[in-house]
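Deviations from the work plan: none for this task. Representative record:
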Amino acid sequence: MYSVSVRDHFMIAHSFSGEVFGPAQRLHGATYVVDVEFRRPSLDDDGIVVDIGRALDTVRAILADLNFRNLDEAPEFKGRNTTTEFLARVIFDRVAGAIRNGDLGDQARAVQSIRITLHESHVAWAAFEGLVNATS
Amino acid sequence: MYSVSVRDHFMIAHSFSGEVFGPAQRLHGATYVVDVEFRRPSLDDDGIVVDIGRALDTVRAILADLNFRNLDEAPEFKGRNTTTEFLARVIFDRVAGAIRNGDLGDQARAVQSIRITLHESHVAWAAFEGLVNATS
Amino acid sequence: MYSVSVRDHFMIAHSFSGEVFGPAQRLHGATYVVDVEFRRPSLDDDGIVVDIGRALDTVRAILADLNFRNLDEAPEFKGRNTTTEFLARVIFDRVAGAIRNGDLGDQARAVQSIRITLHESHVAWAAFEGLVNATS
Amino acid sequence: MYSVSVRDHFMIAHSFSGEVFGPAQRLHGATYVVDVEFRRPSLDDDGIVVDIGRALDTVRAILADLNFRNLDEAPEFKGRNTTTEFLARVIFDRVAGAIRNGDLGDQARAVQSIRITLHESHVAWAAFEGLVNATS
Amino acid sequence: MYSVSVRDHFMIAHSFSGEVFGPAQRLHGATYVVDVEFRRPSLDDDGIVVDIGRALDTVRAILADLNFRNLDEAPEFKGRNTTTEFLARVIFDRVAGAIRNGDLGDQARAVQSIRITLHESHVAWAAFEGLVNATS
Amino acid sequence: MYSVSVRDHFMIAHSFSGEVFGPAQRLHGATYVVDVEFRRPSLDDDGIVVDIGRALDTVRAILADLNFRNLDEAPEFKGRNTTTEFLARVIFDRVAGAIRNGDLGDQARAVQSIRITLHESHVAWAAFEGLVNATS
């Protein structure tokens, strides 16, 4: 299996609901350094998994929609805890959608699975991985 | 598949038995930076894999039992080479046990598999991964 | 010159005032990974710059006061942009004060200068350094 | 599953063929920081996956054959784009061959799969993983 | 002293002249991960050293001029070994010039000194630092 | 000021004397990842600070003398706490001596100052820096 990974980041405010979160129930924030790994069993005609430049552009566009926001006020996350692992899944769905839409080029539709990792500090990170088609 | 990872470290002395180890047959030591990855197919009611704070506390307690020791004198490792990969398995067994015991909370019992990575330097690391139940 | 450095982190929400900040004028947040470097020209009687455990405890206590907060509502920062470099100075003043107060032990009063670095992402960080006494 | 990983690097010049590569069609170069992960289900008699020293030596020898070269003039890559993911596969084939040849010792023949990761910058990396025998 | 640092990278081909370089006399290449540190004794009216976004844009523009090139054919480096430390100085001169030209804004003219670090691998890096005005 | 830095590591056992060290009074160990920074105001005739390959070889030879040892039994450290900062100084003295001896080549005698950093974990490191001649 081949893979290509790219890295970018975004910065948000949010708070969590539930006793388990302790002081993180207060409004606070995070920088998420995001790694997106694209996997496929064989390379395309150009000898690549995806074009790294195009992958970086696609990821930047997806993160720009989240960047510099208070996620507590985001209608799409209403009633949800926007935890690191939850956000990994949100970004997974959007990157998978971009691949299916051809935003990374026709050949990138052969990407089989992706893994999204969000680093929230030097001691904690979370990830979601799954198939690009029929994600579950 | 979702995952959450946390990082901590411990520092020990030990020596190895066997020609393959060359100068590492002498008493020496290591800092192990430890990454523990918890994996499960769906999030719990709070939207998490495990509580990161509780995960860090559990890992710290498990590493405290190894920290600042000469492993050559540890009765539990008698006759064994406490290599990086061996220690990854030791910590795996203890973290898996803690999950089964409910030390990370009831909901964390749904963690399916874990991966323990021990970084021994900037150029070498080792890992053990397996299922939390029926580890083999 | 000798130095010892320790690392910890904190997570906050805030917003900035001023056109230069663009979208960062909106309420957002950050994880700051904090490095504190202690410098002195000679070691103490135990052969150390400062005790690393005590240094980690002191830094943790100082960061706990900032952690999981919305800095826009912090009375002590009213009317100020809590930029990365500004916060580096805030933490500098508090660590310098802790040294002068003897929180790191009597021998640590010989620490001459400190440097505080706040990493806000994998592509940006800021620092403040100065003398422990007569900071300016 | 156990694993041991080692890191080394090599530096090459090359250019790419195909519009998708944009300015990378010009002769340029890269440092590749290479991680080689060796995996097997159980440890050998010495309690290891592979000897880390021997693994580092084997990887260094394999990378030495690529290091400080212009890959555009390498006969073995004629007509191919030597992308990061392509080179990960090249190194995979050579490390797998070395294992099968016994270069890492007899016991290392039990290594089941390997993963080669090439970091080309702080924001992009690629990998190839597969079985040591019957690689496809 | 306050500082702000930003990171970017570029990828080039080159060769060196002189026996000391051994196999690096052959045409090869490198990825340089570049850190640019801006230092000044006090913050500007917005509470910053320089605007991080603008700093990243300026550095990207300067590196774009070097990126994806064979430096052996660059007229401006004719007869010079484009070593890591030499390139750190080249970038220093260009960033210092950009500051003096006001490319980072009027307030950024108060930046006193800068430090350019080029990481060429996980085991080697080089830097040049100096004053923005009267560089020597 | 120009600088070139190289990285290597060594692994030792030791214990500390003094209540301040708490559990580190027991025999334990550490991996030290060592960065050696060489500084000089101008480049040599080849356009370098020091030859990176030769610097790596020199540092490896110096660390080999400490590697895989129990420092409690090292006659040269009798009665001393071999703390991270103390060891940074030990290595400083040896690298400075190597420069003065011409081990890095005649032109490297122009190196003015060096800085030795020992990383003992992901959250703690220590350093010693000083002039190559007239070190104090």
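The two ends of chain A are 21 Å apart (CA to CA).
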